[in-house]
Amino acid sequence: MIREGETVQLTNGKNRFFIRLKRDEILGTHRGNINHNDIIGKNFGYKVKTHLGEEFVILKASLYEIIMYGIKRKTQIIYPKDSAYITVKLGLTDGYRVLESGIGSGGLTIVMANAVKPSGKIYSYERNETHLKIAIDNIKLANMESYVEFFHQDLEESLPENFFDAGFIDVREPWHYVENIYNSLKIGASLGFLLPTTNQVSRLLEELQKFNFYQTEVVEILLRHYKPVPDRLRPEDRMIAHTGYLIFTKKL
């Protein structure tokens, strides 16, 4: 049974909407209005009608669907093909305290928060107030706000020392903050970065060599979908190819 506070997906095959249910709230769409009360207490798979008579199926909303289709994007997001790898590569698990800088629209934050809950937390630092506000709303849509602490500041300001179990940095010039980041990590902590160009990666690698980091590597992840038609299986015409270079290392 669907409860108040859950995030659900509504679709009619052409349109889809994601809402976090709150009693007496109304979702306004170009297909008509839907009362949250008409969804609460129902089961997934049931249909609900707008005031114009249009039917929508109520479906569970996976984190992948929320990130790809539900959240508002003010900035480019880190796609699940990358965020899943990042989460595993950093070894994120329940209880971890994770440094994040450059929250963007919150796509990666949602995935990392899901990995460290219920007793862990993401400490997210973002200097752009507009980005931060949008990200907070997106993270609330995914029901992950209890596992994220938000800071309206950048990495130039002081961080707690020897505090974080892992970190991920998505800012334009991370080499300016490597010393501050290094001091904030526990010994053995994994650290990741995302950068869009090779010259930025080279500049970061030069800076990392000045500190006691180990097992540094650079990777790129490509994902190609296929058309699921048995008699003419072939790749989709479009693919999300290069989205960024991922740099990983460990503090010694």
Task: Quickly describe the structure.
Helix content is 23%, strand content 30%. It is built from six helices and 15 strands. The protein is globular, with a radius of gyration of 20 Å.
Q: What name does the CATH topology of the largest domain carry?
A: Rossmann fold
Distance between the termini: 49 Å
Q: What's the β-strand tally?
A: 15
Radius of gyration: 20 Å
Tell me the series of helices and strands, N- to C-terminal. EEEEEEHHEHEHEEHEHEEEE
Tell the overall outline.
globular
Instruction: List the domain count as a whole number.
Output: 2
Q: Which residues sit in consecutive blocks of at least 5 with pLDDT less than 50?
A: none
How big a fraction of the residues is strand? 25-35%
Explain the overall architecture.
The structure is a single chain. This protein has helices at 63-70, 80-89, 107-116, 129-141, 178-184, 198-208, and strands at residues 7-11, 16-20, 26-29, 32-35, 47-49, 55-60, 97-101, 121-125, 148-151, 164-169, 185-195, 213-219, 226-227, 234-235, 245-251. With 252 residues, the chain is of the alpha/beta class. It folds into two domains: 7-61, Vcp-like ATPase, Chain A, domain 2 (Roll), CATH 3.10.330; 67-251, Vaccinia Virus protein VP39 (Rossmann fold), CATH 3.40.50.150. It has a seven-stranded mixed beta sheet with strand order 9-8-7-10-11-15-12. Strands 2-1-6-5 form a four-stranded antiparallel beta sheet, with helices on one face. Strands 3-4 form a two-stranded antiparallel sheet. Strand 1 (7-11) and strand 2 form a beta hairpin. The longest helix is centred in the middle third of the chain and has 13 residues, at 129-141.
